[in-house]
Amino acid sequence: MISDSDISEAVAAYLGRYPEEAEQLAEPLRLLAEGRGFASRRSFPMHVTVGALLVRDSTEILLVEHLAYGITLQPGGHLEPADVTLVDAAMRELTEETGIDPGQISVVSSAPAYVEYGQVPARPAKDEPEHHHLDIGFAFATARADVGRIQESEVTGAGWYPLELAERLVGPRITRAISGPAKVR
Questions:
Q1: What is the rounded CA–CA span in Å between residue 21 and residue 45?
Q2: pLDDT for 107-164, tens place per residue?
Q3: Residue 164: count of CB within 10 angstroms of its CB
């Protein structure tokens, strides 16, 4: 399982690139220092999630229609006990939700492209109180991957969006998906 120190190292690598975001990540870093197993979905008041920003041919990005939230965003989700690294967990979520062949995807960087700390409403059906997600996202690239069979228990659709439209829908983290070099398959 991914440890709190693994998560802290990823956030530190991110802050090395974006030091201006240190203040907004101060609270999750304080919580991580307590070492309470934040990779577990059952960890409250916070746990870690991962996201995947997959850019195709440097012109469009893959977004999903999230079933539980009813919004368009990047693929991603909760960590699982078998996950070894955060970037591998992001790749797992990406391929599970969209059915894309992982052999057609390249990791842009092992350092996160974005880290966001946000409040999540209570979900009584899942026995989850109001809490926070520390969402750690990674950039991926592809030259020709297509959406396969979507994970209907998590998403209602998946598709490719022009980068400008995706940024309007999802936010500025989209531009971070194209900020590094990649070996594209």
A1: 21
A2: 998 999 999 999 999 989 889 999 999 999 999 999 989 999 989 888 989 999 999 9
A3: 11
How far does CA 176 lie from the centroid of its chain? 12
CA distance 183 to 68: 34
Residue with the two structure tokens 């998946």 = 158
**pLDDT the model gives residue 179:** 61
Q: What is the 3-state secondary structure (H, E, C) of the chain?
A: CCCHHHHHHHHHHHHHHCHHHCHHHHHHHHHHHCCCCCCCCCCCCEEEEEEEEEEECCCEEEEEEECCCCCEECCEEECCCCCCCHHHHHHHHHHHHHCCCHHHCEECCCCCCEEEEEEECCEHHHCECCEEEEEEEEEEEECCCCCCCCCCCCEEEEEEEEHHHHHHHHCHHHHHHHCCCCCCC
176: left (phi over 0), alpha (psi -120 to 50) or beta: alpha
Q: How far apart are CA 71 and CA 14, in angstroms?
A: 26
pTM of the model: 0.92
- pLDDT tens, position by position, 59-76: 999 999 988 778 899 999
